[in-house]
């Protein structure tokens, strides 16, 4: 009388079953052994900290104040200089020859301020705390200090 082939294992010999089981056990053992020996990058624990710092930086940049209109910034810089007895002279095109110029993405107006070196630098330092001013170049001739600058805005 013949054996009836019932179920999945009905037609497979016991040697084949043992080989399949041995292969499965060996595969699980090798996988677990390799998993336990695997090293994570050294800075893996710092990843959350780096992500939160980056998000904080992005939040600060988004909350940063927007630049004032160029006309208003120029007027404010000019009036601050006038209060100190200095005059902001707009560029008449002569700055493009031999003097550094602003080459950024923002709208800008360039000019120069002449006077006593200490006074000019002190007033400009004060202005830079409140207005977007780029210092471009300076010159000293006959005891007269001349500072070239650009005021930027939108």
Describe the model:
- The chain is 43% helix and 20% strand.
- The mean pLDDT is 86.
- The chain is of the alpha+beta class.
- The protein folds into 2 domains: 14-61; 70-153, Alpha-Beta Plaits (2-Layer Sandwich).
- It has a 4-stranded antiparallel β-sheet.
- Strand 3 and strand 4 (144-153) form a beta hairpin.
- The chain has 4 helices and 4 strands.
CATH level 3 topology of the largest domain = Alpha-Beta Plaits
Secondary-structure element string:
HHHEEHEE
Record the strand order, biggest sheet: 1-2-4-3
Distance between the termini: 97 Å
Report the CATH C-level class of the largest domain: Alpha Beta
Number of helices: 4
The geometry reads as: rod-shaped
What is the CATH homologous superfamily assignment of the largest domain?
Ribosomal protein S6/Translation elongation factor EF1B
The percentage helix is 40-55%
Global Rg: 37 Å
| Uncertain regions spanning at least 5 consecutive residues | none
CATH architecture of the largest domain: 2-Layer Sandwich
Give the rounded overall mean pLDDT. 86
Domain module tally: 2
What structural class do you assign from the helix and strand content? alpha+beta
Largest sheet, if any? 4 strands, antiparallel
Number of strands: 4
Strand percentage, roughly? 15-25%
């Amino acid at each position: 009388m013949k054996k009836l082939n019932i179920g999945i294992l009905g037609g497979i010999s016991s040697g084949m079953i043992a080989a399949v089981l041995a292969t499965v056990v060996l595969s699980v053992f090798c996988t677990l052994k390799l998993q336990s020996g695997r090293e994570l990058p050294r800075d893996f624990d710092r990843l959350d900290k780096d992500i939160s710092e980056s998000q904080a930086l992005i939040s600060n940049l988004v909350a940063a104040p927007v630049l004032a209109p160029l006309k208003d910034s120029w007027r404010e810089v000019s009036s601050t200089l006038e209060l100190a007895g200095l005059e902001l002279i707009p560029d008449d095109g002569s700055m493009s020859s031999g003097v550094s110029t602003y080459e950024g993405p923002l709208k800008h107006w360039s000019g120069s301020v002449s006077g006593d070196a200490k006074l000019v630098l002190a007033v400009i330092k004060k202005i830079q705390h409140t207005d977007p001013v780029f210092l471009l170049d300076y010159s000293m001739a006959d005891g007269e200090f001349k500072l070239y600058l650009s005021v930027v805005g939108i």
